[in-house]
Amino acid sequence: MQRQDGNHVRGKWRIWSVTLLLFMLLLNACGGGGASSDKGDAKGVSSETSTGASGSGGLEPVELTWYYPQWNTQRDLKTVEQAINDITTKEIQATIRLKPIENSSYAQKLNTMVASNENFDIAWTSFWMFDYAQNARKGAFLELDGLIDTHMPELKKTLPGVVWEALKVEGKTYGILNYQTITNREGFIVQKQYADKYKLDPASIKQVKDMEPFLTAVKTGEPGIIPFALTRGGSFEVMKNSFNRLEFINNHAIIGIYQDDKELKAVDIIQTPEYKEYTELMHGWFKKGIINQDAANLKSVNDLKKVGKIASVFHNVLKPGRDIEEKAAFGGKDIALVHLTEPYVGKNTIIQSMQAISKNSKNPERALMFLELLNKDERLINLISFGVEGKHYEKVNENTVKPIEGGGYDPIQTWVFGNTFKAFLREGQSQEVRDQTDQGERERPPFADSRLHVRSAARLDGNGQHSSCERPIRPWPGYGHG
Predict the structure, then answer these.
(1) Which of 30, 51, 167, 239 falls 20 to 30 Å from 193 in CA-CA distance?
(2) What does the pLDDT read at residue 229?
């Protein structure tokens, strides 16, 4: 009798086991299952499809974390986050957790997270901070080829082909570009009141050292004002094209090329006469009191800019409208630009600002869907860039805004978030200039043009030797006006 009861119980368990197995198989077939592979590629990712603007369909709610650097703390971030989630929960059933990190700590924090295999979903990356190519090669980011067509069809059509080529690392795509100007132009950003007072003639400035008489005049005539502000990182990386057309091909090993060298011979930047000239000039300015005396320790000049304590800084992206952006950063002071180079373009000028998906993301497809939405839904890019209308900014006209003083949110970094051409204009910026710039970028020739690009990203082999390089620069007349 006991044996018969045991057989009966075992029979029931077999029936339940088969039923449970069939149920699990059915769930797996419907949901797609799977997680991202440890190798950072697209294998094993589930088969959610983009819902676009039509709503979230039958998607399960998820939470996504998004890490990015910030140059100014935003005290009303939570209000903006909630407004973003009012949209994303409806459109793609995703709650977004914004995780801004102070810019000077960003790379260290994210590299630590990657090294410890910590889970996150989206992270901002670049060639110059939290290195895009380096992290892609070591498997920190999910390979996106094959997923972009399915989950970002509109964004793929929106961005020029040259962008998608520039995003490739050893033939694979690991990032989504925050589309902005893809050209660089180096020069000084100067408070206009001092440029006017001391009769600075931008056309007379051909080299960095030509600014010294003006800076000396500011030093003598403006007590308490820093003539030229510098941080502990120095400025050579953004001045490099102003010094004999040097180009970095590996930021970590500080290796570069002379752009006019047909042999593309790699050089140690530190050993070049141009770098020696730069260090001697900066040291001389420091001794003369032209440069802030805390430069060796200063992480950021933003607080000093905001209160008008700085007469000039150097920048490598003097794009059209830069003077208006910097006016906001300089606390409302009018700005003059002094261009030292012609506009130029290359792989590194394109991959300056991107979003990548962590290989450990539990919801990589939803993360892509969010980035697609962020780059096509103007409500989102304007929320993250300017905040909430009436609380953080007010409209000047349909497409132009100005921040509300003391509103608590004005990061002034649309380029960190997404497609800048879809965002509002800041008061004083020109729609015509923006349209000219956008058109110029889209008419760029492809990287296949041998005058522009030599294939393969710069890197070091396992022995620390330079193994390949690119020559990614030439002037580009389609930059726009400014």
Answers:
(1) 239
(2) 97
pLDDT at position 255 = 81
Give 242 or 64, the one with higher predicted confidence.
Answer: 64
* DSSP 8-state code for residue 110: H
Give the chain's mean pLDDT. 81
DSSP category for residue 156: H
Task: Tell me the C-alpha distance between 436 and 275, whole Å.
Answer: 35
Amino acid making up residue 46: S
Residue 338 has pLDDT above 60, yes or no: yes
Token couple for 425: 């204009």
Cβ neighbors of 138 (< 8 A, separation 6 or more) are 114
Strands 122-125 and 62-70: parallel
pLDDT at 349 over 60: yes
3-state secondary structure of 340: coil
141 CB contacts (<8 Å, ≥6 apart)? 40, 125, 135, 174, 175, 356, 357, 358, 359
Whether the CB-CB separation of 314 and 239 falls below 8 Å is answered with yes
225, 446, 415, 400: which is closest to 316 by C-alpha?
415
Residue 18, SS3 per DSSP: helix
Residue 154: C-alpha distances to residues 53, 139, 286, 434 (Å): 11, 27, 50, 21
Spell out the alpha helix ranges (H) of 32-102: 77-92
For tokens 């006469």, the residue is 273
Structure tokens at 360: 């450990």
